[in-house]
Amino acid sequence: MVKSFLHIGISVIDLEASVKFYSEIMQMDIERRSKYQGDLISRIVGVKDADLDICVLEKDNLRIELLDYKSDKHKKLIKHPNQDQPGLVHLSFLVDDVDKEYERIKAYGYEFNSPPMVARKNGPKIAYFKGPDNVVIEIYEKNF
Length: 144
Prior knowledge:
Layout: E1 8-11, H1 15-25, E2 29-37, H2 39-45, E3 51-59, E4 62-69, E5 91-94, H3 98-106, E6 117-118, E7 125-130, E8 136-141
Parallel strand pairs: 1-4, 5-8
Antiparallel strand pairs: 2-3, 3-4, 6-7, 7-8
């Protein structure tokens, strides 16, 4: 029996930059940090000679696990799938005021697809931008 959803894992190029983004900009709390290497972790994750640092961040029972594999071969940034392609395409964060968050996040230099918009009558006000490691982030204001 599946009990609950635990976390989303994201492989990152620069752990410290990603921790800063999710903790400072997306206002998540750092839950824990750990390091793993050797045969046991290599067998668990299916990566030969695995050497990785991990940081888990949490916000309202949602956890993101950032995984930084130290090998250079794991440091290639791949093109993120388009929204209309199968696979995980974005993370969504609920905000109180999407216009305020849009301006705050833009001030850090992140580019949005568009200004905040209401997509349907009586729907939420939303905006999308690309965060570190080509992860698309949605900010979402309910019942605008």
